[in-house]
Amino acid sequence: MVALRKLLPPYTLHTPGGERVYLPDLKGKILVLLRDPGMAQALALRQEELAALEAQAFLLAQEAHESPLPLLLDRDGNLVHAIPEKGVLVADPFLEIYHLGPVEGVEEVLEWVRFTGAQCPECVLPEAEWL
Q1: CA distances to 7, 18, 36, 59, 113 from 99, in Å
Q2: What is the pLDDT of residues 77-92, one digit of tens each?
Q3: How far apart are CA 92 and CA 88, in angstroms?
Q4: β-strands 30-34, 55-61: how paired?
Q5: How far apart are CA 102 and CA 47, in angstroms?
Q6: The whole model's pTM is what?
Q7: Is 29 exposed, middle or buried (0-12, 13-18, 19+ CB in 10 A)?
Q8: What is the pLDDT of residues 42-79, one digit of tens each?
């Protein structure tokens, strides 16, 4: 189940070319997943900024189509449907989800990336609740 402050489930997605992408293999950078092509276009224009923040962004879809960001196919829709239509999922480099919800635009996405990058997972007690 996809939920805030939980690890992203170990789904296997695919590229349009059929290559398998196992989500745990994406560890190491902040992960941004979105499903809105318009938001993907706006975020694609900020790729240098994403790279400087040590983040990677992907557009999720159930079927292959043109994409300004790398496209990951979730044919069953398990992950696609967990993300609101005008929303994003932002996970830290260990794939813990810090944001899963709507955003107003690309600036808010980048704010979530900055916030996520500023967190210190070693500083939070495992039993602590996060709001």
Answers
A1: 12, 28, 16, 16, 9
A2: 999 999 998 999 999 9
A3: 13
A4: parallel
A5: 21
A6: 0.90
A7: middle
A8: 999 999 999 999 999 999 999 999 999 999 999 999 99
